[in-house]
Specification:
This protein is an alpha/beta fold. It is 40% helix and 20% strand. InterPro entries: AMP-binding_CS, AMP-dep_synth/lig_dom, ANL_N_sf.
Length: 629
Amino acid sequence: MPPAPSAPSPVDRRPPSVAHLFLSRVEATPDAEAYRYPVPAPGGPGAPAPDVWHSLTWAQTARRVEAVAAGLLSLGIRPEQRVAIASETRVEWIIADLGVMCAGAATTTVYPGTDADETAYILADSGSRVLFAESERQLAKAAAAVERLPGLTHVVLFEEPAERTPVEGLTVLTLGELERRGLAFLERHPGAVRESVAAVGRDGLATLIYTSGTTGRPKGVLLPHDCWAYQGVSQEVSGVLRADDVHYLWLPLSHAFGKALLAGQIRTGHVMAVDGRVDRVIDNLTVIRPTVMACVPRIFEKVYNGVLGRARAEGGTAHRLFLRAADVARRHTALTEAARAGGGKRLPAALRLQHALADRLVYAKVRAAFGGRLRHAVSGSAALAPGVGPFFTGAGIPVLEAYGLTETSAGVAINPPGAPRSGTVGTALPGSEVRIAGDGEILLRGPGVMRGYHGLPEVTAEVLESDGWLRTGDVGELDPEGYLRITDRKKDMFKTSGGKYVAPSEIEGRFKAICPFVGTVVVIGDGRNYCTALITLDESALMPWAAEHGMRGVPYSGVVADPRTRALVDGFVEQLNGGLQRWQTLKRFTLLPRELGVAQGELTPSLKVRRPVVEQAWAREIAAMYPGA
């Protein structure tokens, strides 16, 4: 007899759209808390009052989402037409996005820090009809380019404007006015939104996300509803998110990483605290006390460097205690992972005792700074500096490195919560496939892969094979258990004039592991006879050291220019070079007078380095490192 067919997995039984996913969640747990969001308290004399946190249940959220969806239908929005959102992460962003999708339309995401020219390009290229704008500042970007945006008819403001200034060619509403318009529309057409949701299928366009890109104009990535429905179910099945979680979301929702987490939250139904103000992250942690949180690597690195900097500033016993505790945490993580992979050998008794002591003296304080309940954190968007993840994991905050692209609607691989492996991005999510091409390039296939690039069929064909495999441009390797390790970005690898290939991210990662003061390091050397580096330093780690060395009160730029600072970094560069091949070593380096920035275009909004922009912006400094060239 043939074997009985296996039951379909939850991934195979995923709903056809995010709209269906949302309505199913509302029906299942209407009275459960869905979102928490801060409302600034009225200001007064002295220190500002703390925020007041409000909540929405799933049923309350659904009423607002339905009103927004109906309001868009009343404006004439039709299936798959684009509606843009330009805003920081806030609960209104989520309500607007769900409203767009329940109306059958598609969200165009615009990072709020995007300049006016690129904002106009994205709105025009996408053909967006309506723009949800956080504030008058975002409205001004559209207004300045209104003649380039013939399809844009309405702007909906999240914040009440100080005064209504007419914008020729645009109708400006507030979110409240749109919702009231939607409620009136529903009185005339009570089933309109349900009918729109019923008509949405797996292949219907849900989101158009423009890659922040490291070169040229951004490309619009077409992501159908099935991508997000898959993300939601796969996060639940993998155990990354659970129904009892309290999730702190501050990541930009204009990027796939944040958007994918929304799908997972809707699927599991857990509480999500939403506040995109980066300057409030530390304060919010002890208020929200999250059980799960996702970050870009730079945040973990800054926290680690900050803790190390404070210990160094205290000096003596405190500094030595932290360094010993960090070493114990890393050894504990390494041996725990090795024991798990090799069959469960017990940790040495001496290490267990050292770890218990360090837990009372150091790790408990680190956990308390994160609210004291964090069961794990997720790191994605770029590589985490070696040693940082193992430290936090050993301190009781497992950091699960993950991997994905905008083109895969974010996550395609993640370290399993119960079996992470440092230095890898884990295993493929259920339903996704990973393989390595002959040249080392990582290929991906699965339900999360994009439909293609908007209006760019030839570019789409370059990366998306006819059988569904996506060429990522990343280089990596798979171990026998299916754990994926990223070794470099294919297009970032370069060849020196001596014919030697160099993987810059490998060198940069090693330097971050050695130097606790580094902010960003960019290795240079394409077509040149040796490698050099542009280096920025982490101000939070550097300034306590500077104060100890007679530079208290000196600004960052002055500290960086001081010969003592250069000597400090030179020692770490020598240590780095000792572990590299001759052609990889850094012969010279330059300390930059400021950190690289998103506003200057040197970093993407997800804090990845735009190498061509950096090399152009600092061309004079680079040229000085190659005298006579």
